[in-house]
Amino acid sequence: MNNNVQPTSKFASFVISWRWMVILLMLVLIGISASGGRFLAFSTDYRVFFSEDNPQLNAFETLQNTYTKNDNVMIAIEPRQGGVFTAETMKIVKELTEASWQIPYSIRVDSVTNYQHTRAEEDDLIVADLVKNPGKMGAEEFKSVKDIALTEPLLIGRLVNKTASITGVNTTVNLPGKANEETPEVVTFVRDMVEKFRAKYPDTNFYMTGVVFMNNAFDEAGRGDMMTLIPIMYSLVIILLWWMLRSFFSMLTTILVVAFSVMTGMGLAGYVGILLTPIAANAPIIILTLGVADSIHILTTMLHEMRMGKSKRDAIAESLRVNHQPVFITSVTTAIGFLSLNFSDSPPFQDLGNIVAIGVMAAYAYSVTLLPALMTILPVKVRPLPESGRLPVDWLADRVIAKRRQWFFGMMAFVLVLVAMTPRIEIDERFNEYFDKRFDFRNDNDYVVANLTGFESIEYSLKAADSGGIADPEYLKTVDKFAEWYRAQPHVMYVGTLTDIMKRLNKNMHGDDPAWYKLPDRRDLAAQYLLLYELSLPFGLDLNNQINVDKSAIRFTAVLDNISTREGLELEERAQTWLRENAPASMEGPGASPLIMFSHIAMRNVEAMMNGAVLALILISAILVMALRSMKFGLVSIVPNLMPIAMTFGIWAVTVKYVGLSVSVVAPVALGIIVDDTVHFLSKYLRARRERKATPAEAVRYSFHTVGTALGITSLVLAIGFSVLGYSGFTMNVHLGVMTVIAIVCALAADFLFLPPLLMKLEGKDHEKFHSGFSKSDAVNPGLAPGGKG
Q1: pTM of the predicted protein model
Q2: Which residues have CB under 8 Å from 134's CB, separation 6+?
């Protein structure tokens, strides 16, 4: 046994001596913080992705406050045989229309059967349901209804398709927004209702989509990931820890530390009222992944020292002495990386950053207090070192030192090639593809979009010059031209506007003469027609969803197919150009919709996170300068910290090309994680240079020998942890996980293959003497040549 007594810090002595008090105190703090978990709840509103001052959200809210909300439930009905316009199918549509009024918070139900068709009878305007009693209608009547529906702009492409093979019942709901249970309440009611219809009408297919079902999918995605991915991650961590540490109690204490860290982060999030989303719900997995790294560094050093002959207590003390500062630094820098997510324009990413930052610092606190205290009282057995005293990383160290020049210039060339690829990256994604096909919403929505109507839309509030100005013929003509322009654009499935109603009313008031299917040419006539029509509409089917109170503006809606965010922004830009060139200034206004909101937020997030990443880099570099007590090495650390990020985006540009909302936060997140490898490698390198008076090559070998294995293990755990996100059903999580895994692998490559040659190059050639192999003394004083001073 080695009888040399290593100096121990006062902190390590305190933790070891007062281990029972430390354990009790930590458990009390954990219990208090974890109890906040009872306040956690999931958000069921996609608007949570946008900050209160988001201009696109404010424009959308203004439009909805002016008219009515567009939160809806769309139930598509498709007979397996025959078309829509049959007695059986129309009976189902009418029955479902009436049943949909019972949906909680419903304010309007639209379908082919209750569509308010107008016709003239002598001098009277008749406004009535298009289909009143399908059971008593004959073939000719159904043919007439079909002809009307397939030529009506307000129905075709919205409530019935061109081939009359599928139709829909659209229910508008007005959720009070007072409780998170409102959306699940609506979805549960609709699903139960549709199941009854499926049982009653087995020869008819039913599909459920709409904004309410999308909101619920966000909730299901978050809950689903927490229920499936967290157990998977825990299982993988247990297997990996057992394989790497080969110590049951070392594995157990590590699991306890990370579990307590997760409980602390999530509990404190509950206290401050954070609502969980599919993004924020990743926090437990990320905390679990990052928390393992702290414990592994402390345990691997402890086990190494025990193999070298130290007693368990001395080994724990030595491990805390050499690892406390690096673990603290890496925890702080990781927390800074995640806290930089507060620059994000999307609150769920801010919540994720704050929860993970809390969890990471909790993991640090428990790793240097609870972990050593528990290990002091638990039995630990270690395997002896191999006879040679060499580890696999020693072989890698020899190769890197021997071929330092080739590795240095080879890595530089590889990085430059990847950086040259980054201009290929485009910001683009498809909103409806946020969920994969394990979600019923995605499958039903895809089918409805392909066969009936679109899910995405762009809406405008087109203002007239004055109150009542929507009856002005010139105003109506401009709106109608805008509608015709929009219908000619790609991806547009339906355009809904008041001008189609006005044309039909003008025809009705001229004896249903098709020649008069055009806009009224007098303001007073248009106003009279509109008033007569409004007075004839039944309750719940008025025009409040299309006209504002003083009739100075109308709602213009364009429904789109599976359009990407980039295509949506291009369409909106063309629309704004048309309005500027063809409409009066009063009609100009931004398009508003969830599509526009999500399209803009990706770009806004990229710009915001660039600022966050720069600030994080400055803070992290400043911390490293102070911690390493060297301006030179603090600045040197920037290179291996930025290289992996550049490599990651280069690889993404070659393999995927497109980035979206989640990818915009990868840089600061990855920076906070990958800096850990650099900190541990540099701290061991400088310890060898300062305490052991080692040459640069010897210091590099010392770093590989003492921390190389731990870095490999932690990188493997981190990569596996974030790769678990790849199994999420939520695309944002998949992209975040995959890109972070790429960054972690690139970081390990940079710190193993580029940083050592860089250090030896900067430290000068005079001290670079290559020593091949490790002798017995190397096992005792790793990294030093025989005869080196310890």
Answers
A1: 0.83
A2: 87, 90, 91, 93, 94, 113
